[in-house]
Amino acid sequence: MGNNAIKAHLENSQKTGIFQLTGKGLPEFPEELQRLTGNLRTVDLSSNKIEVLPAAIGNFLQMKSLTLNCNKLTSLPDEIGKLKKLETLMLNGNHLTQLPITVGQLKALRTLSLSGNKFREFPAGLGSLRHLDVLDLSRNHIQAVPAEVAALQAIEINLNQNQISVVSVEVSTCQRLKVLRLEENCLELTSIPVSILTTSQVSLLSVEGNLFEVKNMRDLEGYEKVSRETDACFFDIQPAAKLMIKVKARNSQATALCCL
Fold first, then answer.
1. Cα-flanking dihedrals φ and ψ of residue 157, to 5°?
2. What is the pLDDT of residues 11-43, one digit of tens each?
3. Residue 204 pLDDT > 50
4. Quick one: which of 49, 108, 100 has its CA closest to 79?
5. Could you give the CA distance from residue 211 to residue 184 in angstroms, rounded to a whole number?
6. What is the mean pLDDT of the chain?
7. Which ranges form a coiled coil (predicted)?
8. Cα separation of 137 and 150, whole Å?
9. Which pLDDT tens digit goes with each residue over 38-67?
10. Whole-prediction pTM value?
């Protein structure tokens, strides 16, 4: 894209605080944006060919939303941690394998979306994100949910379409976790910590497309404590809370929703 076209977008961004330039084949983060470090709040450069996020990204101190989906990023600069007002960071469909430790300095971050990257391990250092609501790590190559997950403050964690075969029991101690998505992984029934059913704050557990059948959920410890409410497979765990378990058999198009 020519400089004149970028210039036209810049003029509009000076008024709105929003710069959006998607699907234009940009090979790099536009250097011209440096003119707007003082007032840019939202940047969307999705569906380009950006391979490197420059260290100068740390100069955008007013930025609240940064979206770089579907680019070619393999890493993030340490300077990303300077964006103290950043609330949304969208990096889906890149080639990231890890995050810089400075991501833990994004104290205002509420949504971190890393779907469709190349993570093989659960990213470390996210426990300091005290306002994080949603963490999306779906469509990666993660094999285990580690004990460190206990430090997370997220309300929803999406781990669909990974290679997870181990879930640490510490996931049950996440204080704010309400939604845990583990669809299309490599989980056996015995891999699911019983404490998710009995003591956690989780209200929606989604486990479609794993290595067990719906009927085998009855074998989980704690299942006998629930009482059937209807023929539609709804159960109570305790008077003040319900846990919905969403399970789909691999060879069936039908989805069963069970509340435990």
1. -125, 120
2. 899 999 999 999 999 999 999 999 999 999 999
3. yes
4. 100
5. 9
6. 87
7. none
8. 16
9. 999 999 999 999 999 999 999 999 999 999
10. 0.88
pLDDT in tens, 215-245: 787 788 756 543 232 233 333 333 334 566 6
Cβ atoms of 192 and 207 within 8 Å: the answer is yes
- Ordered DSSP codes for the chain: --HHHHHHHHHHHHHHSEEE--SS--SS--GGGGGGTTT--EEE--SS------GGGGG-TT--EEE--SS------GGGGG-TT--EEE-TTS------GGGGG-TT--EEE-TTS--SSPPSS-TT-TT--EEE--SS---EE-GGGGG---SEEE--SS---EE-GGGGG-SS--EEE--SS---GGGS-THHHHTS---EEE-TTSSS-GGGGGGSTTGGG-EEEETTTEEESBTTB--EEEE--TT-S--EEEE-
Residue 102, token pair as written in the block: 């400075």
The pLDDT assigned to 83 comes to 98
Tokens of 217: 């959920």
d(CA 136, CA 231): 33
How far, in Å, CA of 56 to CA of 79, rounded? 7
Three-state helix/strand/coil letters over 113-182: ECCCCCCCCCCCCCCCCCCCCEEECCCCCCCEECHHHHHCCCCEEECCCCCCCEECHHHHHCCCCCEEEC
Q: Which amino acid is at 91?
A: L
